[in-house]
Amino acid sequence: MFMKGVVSLARKKRFWFPGAIFHITARGNRRQNIFLNDTDRVSYLNFLKEVKKVHGFKLHAYCLMSNHVHLIIEINDSPPSSILQQLHTKYSKYFNSKYEYTGHLFQGRYHDEIILNREYFLTACKYVHKNPERANLKRLLSNHLWTSHSAYINKELDPIVDTELLREYLMVTYEEFMKYHDVEDPAT
User: Fold this and answer.
1) pLDDT digits (tens, 9 = 90+) for 69-110
2) Which residues contact residue 129 at a Cβ distance below 8 angstroms, ignoring those fewer than 6 apart?
3) For residue 91, how many C-alpha atoms fall within 13 Å in the half-sphere facing its CB?
């Protein structure tokens, strides 16, 4: 029974099922930077690779901004909360140790949106890949390592990114993909 004026602090249970695809965002505490240099980003990607091996999820897209991350993941048998807890605990320990910080690195719980159809998946992937451009971060744009966009524009396979679903949904050639993302072929 709820009493008048009393606010329930219970967390809303997160909905998930094997095969679900989520657009996940996690922001630095107080919107502070969670990546201070490229070494930090490489470390995050290495932890992401480790956690991916353990949990068997598919990573369709990612973007590592200065103060937040975007991940589009398709889960297997592990809930997103287990994946993010392991990933962000590893990274927070690394970051706090390296910079001699204490306390929370990430702001509260991560935000997630379940992706239930093809159109939303395409829109979310494009949004994630275009995030540095919208923020006018030329340094991040020039180094495609910090988004999964590089896995799609480079003809070599990226071991961390699962490109098949987006390519299948778009059913396009490499040139059409580049046009879809409004970018020029780096080989030209």
Assistant:
1) 999 999 999 999 999 999 999 999 999 999 999 999 999 889
2) 61, 63, 147, 148, 149, 152, 181
3) 30
